[in-house]
Amino acid sequence: MKRVLTLLLCILLILCTAGCFAEEKTAKITSESISKEDAGLVLHFIDVGQGDCTLIESKGRFALIDAGERTESNKVVSYLSSAGVESLDFIISTHPHSDHCGGLADVIRNFDTAVLICPDVYTESYVWENVLDAADERGVAYETPNPYEFYQLGDSTVTVLSPKPDAVYSNLNDYSVVCMVEYGNTSALLTGDAEKTVERELVRGSYDLSADILKCGHHGSSTSTCSEFLHAVSPSAAIISCGENNDYGHPHRETIEILQSSHIPSWRTDIHGDIVATSDGNNFYISTSTDETRVTTPKNDNTPAYIGNKNSKVLHRATCESVTKMKDSNKVSFDTWDEAKKKGYTPCGACNP
Ligand SMILES: [Zn+2]
Ligand SMILES: [Zn+2]
Prior knowledge:
The protein is of the alpha/beta class. 29% of the residues lie in helices and 25% in strands.
């Protein structure tokens, strides 16, 4: 009888322990820094002001997701060089908005790139055409993303979750390539500018969305990071990529509030500069560029990227010679080409912004 009881107790103990492990989240954010040898995955959320740019590094292999506006390309190219990038296994251009794809042309011209992964969606954009020209010049292969297809990068995998090849959305942001980056027991979910429509589709889908890090969609806009999605991902940390005092008010109060009420700590490029998340396969360690660095190299000098002429409705780069000849009263400034195009501006033939 005693033996049977002992056996029953043992079985109960094993079941309880197994239950505890199933409940416990295996990976989390640690305050202990991770040595270079143990770093199997490094995610660099590069501060490109109001835009998006993530460098993924695993065991000496590199891939890039987006590269901010065209005006940020010098920063991106020099960041990549100092991170030791010589070539890129692939680039994901989440969607052809200039705050994501603008810097890609210069990246492609500076680093050998095997594949450019971009959604199959047409948009009339000089910035995007410039990226396609650069890819053609350098003989870069194109691929359209397919859900559940994954790309191996060093010891990590990057799995595409959205969009489906036949997807039709009214909003270009929803075509954003959404991907899960995984290494060991750790993962990060990167959603580009995908909004709630896509987030809800993903929640209804079959892929396990739980991730240690969530890069909040659309720069922390309230049009993304809905509660059911956040609940499904249940991240230990959130990253928001946005510019200081940006015109859109990103991140929106609703996003900050939902993260706070869910006790999810967040890191923001507008506050923390470049954010680096390093994984040893069990934990992520997050570090940021220091405030001193930001003071000594002010990136955001408030110079607009483009100047339009109110009368002629022609748009120039801020550095174009025509701008110096323009009357101040005729000048109107824009941060993005898309913004100017929406207001009916056409590009200057000489500087072709
Ligand atoms: Zn964006
Ligand atoms: Zn966008």
